[in-house]
Amino acid sequence: MQWTVVVPLKPLAQAKSRLSDTASAGLRPHLALAFAQDTVAAALASAAVRDVAVVTDDPLAGRELAALGARIVADEPGGGLNAALAHAAAVVRRLRPGGAVAALNADLPALRPPELARVLDAAAEFPRAFLPDAAGIGTTLLAAAPRRELRPAFGAHSRMAHRASGAVELALDAVESVRQDVDTGDDLRAALALGVGPRTAAAAARLLIPGQPAG
């Protein structure tokens, strides 16, 4: 099964506030964009992915991610993360009514295409399925089979919310790169240990992170 992956991205100026202990206010937008670029590039390189749609109203992010081959969907509802995902899923479903759709976090800079394919192949066995994040509290991927609603419930404790909604939790080993999102300095260190994409590596080189070379 081939998937359309929907990636939500808030305006870069508002992104990654929880990295304030690691990155300055001026650098956080650059990190957020780098995370998204590496996430989208890896997703597009995955054998299970047909295409990627990014829902964002940020002009710079839209240009940069479109240059990688993503379709840009405007965040017309302006109603937050889940409204944006539901809107983007509806847009791509109008273009491909029988397609499978998966929502994927934009902050997975260590994402590896084969691991994403493994997760999506496992999700194809169920009407709706999700992958919890590395912390075991949130969600990094939510998948809906053809003709099934996505019904996103991202946010605080989204693992419990998606499970309560009837989505099947995927229990997979060796897919750490799909689970390691980045909200905090500790998350970034964990992603760097896994091995991040080139844009994140370049942006992170400007940080002073214990255990990492200074840029």
Can you tell me about this structure?
This protein has helices spanning 28-44, 59-68, 81-95, 113-123, 158-164, 176-179, 185-194, 198-204; strands at 3-8, 49-55, 71-73, 100-104, 128-132, 139-144, 168-169. By secondary structure, it is an alpha/beta fold. It has a single domain, classed as Spore Coat Polysaccharide Biosynthesis Protein SpsA, Chain A (Alpha-Beta Complex), CATH 3.90.550.10. It has a seven-stranded mixed sheet with strand order 3-2-1-4-6-5-7, sandwiched between helices.
List keywords for this structure.
single chain, 215 residues, alpha/beta, Spore Coat Polysaccharide Biosynthesis Protein SpsA, Chain A, seven-stranded mixed beta sheet, 8 helices, 7 strands, 16% strand, globular, disordered C terminus
Distance from N terminus to C terminus (CA atoms, Å) equals 42 Å
Strand count: 7
**Radius of gyration, Cα only, in angstroms?**
16 Å
- CATH architecture name: Alpha-Beta Complex
Using the coordinates above, name the CATH class. Alpha Beta
Mean pLDDT: 94
Strand order of the largest sheet: 3-2-1-4-6-5-7
> Could you name the ranges where pLDDT drops below 50 across 5 or more consecutive residues?
210-215
Number of domains: 1
Assess the beta-strand content as a share of residues: 15-25%
Biggest pleated sheet: 7 strands, mixed
The named CATH superfamily: Spore Coat Polysaccharide Biosynthesis Protein SpsA, Chain A
Q: Find the CATH topology.
A: Spore Coat Polysaccharide Biosynthesis Protein SpsA, Chain A
* Tally of individual helices: 8
Helix/strand/pairing class, anyone? alpha/beta
Helical proportion, percent range: 25-40%
Q: What is the molecular shape?
A: globular
SSE string, helix = H, strand = E?
Answer: EHEHEHEHEEHEHHH
